[in-house]
TrEMBL record:
InterPro entries: P-loop_NTPase (IPR027417), Rab (IPR050227), Small_GTP-bd (IPR005225), Small_GTPase (IPR001806)
SMART domains in the cross-refs: RAB, RAN, RAS, RHO
Subcellular location: Cell membrane; Cytoplasmic vesicle membrane; Cytoplasmic vesicle, Autophagosome; Cytoplasmic vesicle, Phagosome membrane
Listed name of the protein: Ras-related protein Rab-23
UniProt keyword Ribonucleoprotein, yes or no: no
Lineage: Eukaryota, Metazoa, Spiralia, Lophotrochozoa, Mollusca
Superkingdom in the source lineage: Eukaryota
Disordered as annotated region, ranges: 176-238
Reaction(s) catalysed by this chain's protein: GTP + H2O = GDP + phosphate + H(+)
GO terms for MF: G protein activity; GTP binding; metal ion binding
Length: 244
């Protein structure tokens, strides 16, 4: 597939405590590799991958954020413009499980409500688990989020996580488009106010109640805030892998 044929781009942020496997997950998904070494992420970086879902070509930009609190101030600026989020913890790290709600709040404080999923990683170490299956399920139920068990090491369920988020996003995109179609007045209003390809620094969000919120400010660091189709436009991203 040629770059200019890509229609939809989704920014996904992967958050969670340090060493739960965020970088490993993104590397596994985008590069198909797994390394045993732990190199803590300093700040943020991202990788991308294109997939086809429901006959749509989708470019996923996966933003890997540092789990260590010392980097919070840097990383939260990068949440902006995200359309989906992976909340990750490790089955052998109790603190990381208990931190999930706070990660959710941090992301929502920056971007409002977006599609999210809870991921319990390192399921290959289930014999040493510090979280009971019922606890994880109860958390997912409470937060009303889909829950996945993954092993990045064994390549279990990693593809499924990102496919699910993509499907959720496409659903939302299609329902937004239907709404615009039904209500042309509101639709044109939306197009005027939400033109992220025309002004890549702008970033607007639609909430469940139908209101729009402009989160744009000068401190926004958003490389690809596009939540709309980009047919016929050359994508801003030309590199497969960038370090920031
Ligand atoms: N056994 C096992 N180890 C894993 C798995 N995923 C990641 N790891 C290991 O866990 C360690 C931490 O992984 P990272 O991907 O660096 O963790 P991170 O969440 O990005 O950490 P920060 O950059 O500090 O936020 C590394 O040694 C990985 O090899 C897994 O599914 N199973």
């Amino acid at each position: 597939m040629r770059e200019e044929e890509v229609e939809i781009a989704i920014k996904v942020v992967v958050v969670g405590n340090g060493a739960v496997g965020k970088s490993s997950m993104i590397q596994r998904y985008c590069k198909g590799i797994f390394t045993k070494d732990y190199k803590k992420t300093i700040g943020v970086d991202f990788l991308e991958r294109q997939i086809e879902v429901n006959n749509e070509e989708v470019r996923l930009m996966l933003w890997d954020t540092a789990g260590q609190e010392e980097f919070d101030a840097i990383t939260k600026a990068y949440y902006r413009g995200a359309q989906a989020c992976v909340l990750a913890f490790s089955v052998v790290d109790r603190d990381s499980f208990e931190a999930i709600e706070s990660w959710k709040r941090k992301v929502e404080a920056e971007v409002g409500e977006i599609s999210m999923v809870i991921v319990q990683n390192k399921i290959d170490m289930i014999d040493e688990a510090l979280i009971q299956p019922e606890e994880a399920e109860a958390l997912a139920k409470k937060l009303r989020l889909r829950f996945y068990n993954t092993s990045v090491k064994e390549n279990i369920n990693v593809d499924e996580v990102f496919r699910y988020l993509t499907e959720k996003y496409l659903e939302k995109l299609n329902s937004d488009e239907e709404e615009e179609h039904i209500s042309p007045q509101i639709g044109s209003d939306l197009i005027n106010s939400e033109s992220p390809h025309l002004n890549p620094k702008e970033n607007h969000y639609r909430h469940k109640n139908g209101k729009h919120r402009n989160k744009n400010d000068d401190s926004t660091i958003t490389l690809q805030p596009n939540k709309r189709r980009t047919k016929g436009r050359k994508n801003m991203f030309t590199s497969r892998c960038s370090l920031l």
